[in-house]
Design goal:
The chain is an alpha/beta fold and 293 residues long. It has helices at residues 2-27, 45-56, 100-108, 117-122, 124-127, 130-136, 154-168, 200-217, 220-230, 237-249, and strands at 35-40, 66-72, 81-83, 88-91, 94-97, 112-114, 143-149, 173-178, 183-184, 254-263, 274-284.
Amino acid sequence: MAKLCSTLCSQLASKLEEELDGWLTASGLTKSPNVRAVIAPHAGYSYSGRCAAYAFGNIDPANISRVFLLGPSHHYYTPKCALSRATVYSTPIGDLPVDQEVIEELKATGKFEFMDLNVDEAEHSMEMHLPYLSKVFQGHSVKVVPILVGAVNSQNEAMYGQLLSKYVDDPKNFFSVSSDFCHWGSRFSYTYYDKNNGAIHQSIEALDRLGMEIIETGDPDAFKQYLQEYENTICGRHPISVLLHMLKHCSMKINVGFVRYEQSSQCKSMRDSSVSYASAVAKVDCPGVESKD
């Protein structure tokens, strides 16, 4: 039985790696050392795996030794950010050690709490980024710093962003920010529909793209205003806001640009539902260098 389980696990790992390879290759992206962060979805790979490849495919792993992973909390309420007690995150295609030195640095600020192991294991927002990170950093020595971003208020989003901004300045650090976009339908208690934009799925896309455009401005206050006005159900709104504050306070100019947008299905009636997925890269602004995104 043990041999059978081992064989099955090996087959599933190979299948997963083949799937990730396929999506990364199909994205046709050129890896760039100027990409310092990504925003990527965290749904099941059959829904958002292809979209996520357009974020992770931009990463040049050569000089990166640490990845900060910021994900929203779906099951556990906290008004703070929480650190992991784990020492290693295991994935089917490789293990990612947790950077204990940085965890201790963050703990010493007194601004973070720790999540219990059951909270850590139940949270999929960071979990779904791990296999992609394992794949992209295969053959490279990298550690992760998982940070669960709770229901933090605007003041604390700014505080955490300023606190983490010093890590953005070090090119050996990278940030992977986890978020899906609009969760539309009665099962999500959100049915905003502007008929001026056409069918329901077109209205959803227009709403998401407005938010994406505001995120691209790098203005966390404008993003907060957008969320208050439209109440778009972007589950990673707090991690995204923390990222915007980080980029605002770091010493270099970093621009956010979205590179892919998809929906799980096209809603055409009020009985339908869908989740939107968007991938973005945050790239160091190099004057005189034309972007290829």
